[in-house]
Design brief:
This protein is of the alpha+beta class. The longest helix is centred in the middle third of the chain and has 50 residues. Helix 10 runs antiparallel to helix 11, helix 12 packs parallel to helix 13 and helix 13 runs antiparallel to helix 14.
Length: 496
Amino acid sequence: AVYIEELGSRRIVYWSPNAAKMFGYDRAQILKQSVARLLADPNEFASEYQAVDLESGGCWRGRRRFRRATGEVFDGTVNATIWRSAAGGCVINVVQPARAPDAFDPPRFEAWANPQMFQILDQSEQLQKGTERKQGEQMIGRLLRNVVNCALFTTDSNGYIMDWNRVASALLGYDRADVCGRHLSVIDHGGEGPILGDALHQASERGTARSSQWLTRKDSKRVYVNVAVFGLSGEAQPQGFLFLLRDNSGDRSLRRKLREREQMAAIGTAASVLAHEIGNPLNGISATVQLLEHFVSRENLPTAHLMLSSINDLKSEIQRLTVLLNEFKNIAWPQKLALAPVDLRSLIQGLIGLIEKRASRQNIEVTVEFQEGMPLLDGDEDKLKEALLHVLDNAVEAMPAGGRLQIKAYPSNDAICIDISDTGVGIPENFKVFDLFSSTKPHGTGFGLFIVQQIILAHDGTITYSSTPGQGTTFHITFVVHQAPESLVDEFSEPL
């Protein structure tokens, strides 16, 4: 018998035909009801019997006392497994009537780490032959294909792919129809030898294999993954293999973002101290120069014009340093955001109006492309305008002799992406544009893109660029969109 419960509320959201036979409740009687309705001892429900093991290891196995609809009490062996999906977390429970201890079969998959759905595979071997077994295998296949927290696929003993879930498609770019029935080698081209083939060979000998490697997607992009391979037990040798792949690129990106934030915090502290230490003497110097200018202009000195020229140079430098210091103060404090829903389409269209006249004077063609279905972004509209306008200004300044400015905004998975491309002079190789005081402009201060990066990071976004000197530059900005989860009851409203 299989039933699925929500992690928080512990309401039943799926009820298999075998569960109806074992407990005596049909779907209409039990769906959305508390699990406590199935238990012989209500205190056992309150004790959160499996919470620790489920959270730490992803699974729990043990015995419980159940009560049928007729009132009859019986002991059952339970395999409970956490399943996390886009809609939230739930627990899949597979129940068998308990047997005497001497007849109890040890679990085959008990030693597997993070065994999402593996106890269900074990349960499938216990199903009766014929229609009931076929229905169980179809249910298992659907469950495996709907695992959303890791890429998963299975092969036969010779390495031919038998099943393939949606996360594997998203991770490696291959649809299920592209790979099912084909040999593992079709996706095993990471550039460093047959990575997955070696793992399969190790799992065949030892039962399991683990590694972290680069793989190449269908679109030729590379992705860094953690690989775990498990042999599915047969009579004498594995009858197949289960592959789990987890994208580790995001973890690396997160660590990089945290390092950048720590560096910015240190720079902000230094900026605050320098602004104070330099600002006070600079004000005194400015006042002294003004007095000196006033004194020299009143006296009939033979060298007055030379002295006034030097004083004007001093005033010009003091003014430049004052502007620089004011910009420096902007990075001394963390970005404070006034968050509200922002329509990026409307925001970008408004920014285009601000640069259109200048772009027209420089013979720059501006094109904008928005994809449908763009969600709202939770952000600070003024800060986002400041950041995007600076990138657009840089693009226009990079094309003094004309060119093409292209802006694309589109949704991608749970994110909004903005690409700003120009056909300008490009950025020199190995030039770090996001570093303080780094500027390709003759009179640039090197603060602009640093502040842009601060604003983007404050919105939990990322900004990267690619450039070819003499051909142009593309800045790629990504914002994560946090959507409200749907009800787990809706997710399991249809029978598996």
